[in-house]
Amino acid sequence: MLIALSLVANLALAQEGYAPQRPVTDPLDATREARVQELGKHLRCAVCQGVSIADSPASMARAQLDKVRELVAQGKTDEEIYAYFVERYGEWALMEPKKSGVTLGLWVFPLLLLAVGLYVIWLQSKKGPTPAPPVSEEPKSEPSTDEYLAKVRADLEK
Amino acid sequence: MNSTLGYGLVLGGLLCAAFAAVVGLTAGLSRKEGALPWVQRAMYGFSGAMVLSNLVMVKALLQHDFSVKYVSQVGSRATPTIFTVVSLWSALEGSILFWGAIMGVYLFAFTWIYRREHGRYMLVTLGTMAAVAVFFAFLIAGPANPWTAIPNPPADGPGPNPLLQNHPLMILHPPMLYLGYVGMTVPFGIAAGALLRGELGDAWLVPLRKWTLVPWMFLSIGIILGGWWAYAVLGWGGYWAWDPVENASFMPWLTATAFMHSTMVLERKKSLKLWTIALALGSFVLTIIGTFMTRSGVFNSVHSFTQSDIGPTFLIFIAFVLVFSVALLATRGHLLVAESHLGTIASREGSILLNNLVFAALTFVVLLGTVYPLATEAFFAKKITVGEPYFNQMALPLGLAMLFLMGVGPVLPWGAADSRLVKQQVLVPLGAGLLTVVVCAAAGYRGFLPLTAFGLAAFATVITLRELFLPAKQRMDEQQEAVLTALFRSASRSQRRFGGYVVHLAVIAAIVGIAASSAYKTHATGTLRPGESMKVGEWTLRFDGLSSGKEPHREYVAANLTLTSPSGSELSRHDARAPRMNYYERSNDPIGSPAVNATFLRDVYVSLLNFDNKTGTASFNAWVFPLVGWIWYVTIPLLVLGTLIALWPQQKTQAAAARAPAPPVAQGAPP
Fold first, then answer.
1. Which of A26, A69, B194, B622 could bridge to B536 as Cys pair (CB 3.0-4.6 Å)?
2. What gap in Å lies between CA B481 and CA B472, rounded to an integer?
3. What is the pTM of this model?
4. Are B390 and A55 in contact (CB < 8 Å)?
């Protein structure tokens, strides 16, 4: 939604008779253009907040996207293109944080949480007659009573 | 005059809330039940004062009384009346005032519905809710006061934020979200009250569940309407950007949804108590954090209207609520002992456990991604971006897992599953899922994620529909009832179940809409001279030239279009219905509005990027989005229907038969 701000900045130009964008490079074929759009999704627009250059209609973003087109036309790899933008704008320019360094935590912590959670659930299902639910303490009642009750309730529900 | 009256009412509300909080909590904890009528009166007093103060503000806005600070900030004589009323919540101070009114309505409803309830249950609960009300009343009276009088009032004001008066959805989106956010105060009060009292029978469970369901419904609607608004107004073709503020509204929704599921395990198996009540408390804490993120300006966003002084007050309150909640859980944890254990994973409770894990993980991902950039900047002086690709990669697998559980859960019985029976029941839905994948693939749709989503959606839909209609069919066979009678009776026999499954269908529709519209959209962009055309997918877009016009509160430039559908029929989109730029007096910057041709199966979406008056050319961004409308047109009605079915007052006979003896609070408890 942030792009509203940049949209506004861009449109101010339009009011003054800003000429519509001329493509800096010749139009690319469909596969390469799709690659440009995909790359654009992963690069942050320099003047907007939190929006990729593929999504932002700001003139700055469109110029940046043209730069991507130019680099793609030159036959650069994805890595080279990302490196080009990181060199100019810092790691900030990557919409998807790197899987290394400080930002590794973003990728690892959720997996860790999932692993621990699955382990706890697995433990408690494996324990059989004396399992404890993951977040509560020792069970009080006998399992048989409860299963019986559960069956009765299930029957009642039918 | 308006200033004095409005501010006086706020102060009166603050006093009433403070009285109710102090008396409710002290009398409740020392078991002096005689104080209840006074606490109730104070609650009514708070509600009345807050609602009246809002009415005075609406009056001041309509009178264009620019001697009131807030009116001078957002009022304008040129604004249409409807947007003048709506500007009550179009800026910070007004929205917090409006917040107070909603709080008043909720507290009034709760106090009144349970007015005959024993003081033992009510005093601490009302006291806790009143304490939250004190905080909001204090915000309105102090740091976010809209009532400041202006000595030399201006003749006219700037009018509300143009973005907010560009589309009628803005009338609905904020109140829905506020109803969701503020409403979480009630379950918080019920849970905290039960914990503080140290009486944790089943009594608190039914009202806790129902009063979570109400704000949950509003929160869901608010979130979807927000996406719809972004789609219809901002012109970039998307509806969700993982913006910090969107995330802030999504997190309490996730925890409240998890709560709604774990509460079933709690009722059936008397276990997961601590976890369930932690989810109830956590949802409230997350709404407060969400409010803070929305309103403090910590995050730059379209939602943070102003940099304001409310940040510190909010931080103190958040810290207080967090410490209070954790302390409650720590000191009362021994009361939340499980009375039974859970069985295998292949059971209803097992699937709900997994569901809760998925919801917890998703909440964690959203929280982590939202806060991480702040943390790296603060601790490592490193600016990073956590954007859409990250959230999508993390959320999509979790979403698919959710879809799978939504399908498989209802098939699994409580306790141990009879694997033969389960296999039998899963066979047809599984076939439907596979068939869907094959048909989609044969029709030329590719991609692992969307096809998996469609397959799982078909699987879950078949199971859900069967669970919905099987009881009715049984009644028709056994008791010879007509279709509608059977359906109605079977639904009213187990409303929660029926309502819950209708909500499942709503969620499935949303997931299908999201998957289809993001995986199979077609996009085109181009600059056209009048008379020239471009292709977007199978559609042709012809530019018919620019035109301009004037409306009461804005001027516009429209890029008139004619769309030609694949079958050759022409749709003209001129002037008011063309993609255009709107110019508001308040700002020099125009606000674009796209032209959307919406149908049940696909939307054609064209936004104006640029135009040149000299040459008469215009640049467009155009998309065709399949099924995108499902996210709002299908999901919202189903979601509301399902929630209302679940909330409808239960019949006594059924309540007695299906459950253990009804708890005291539940007896006098309408929805």
1. B622
2. 9
3. 0.87
4. no
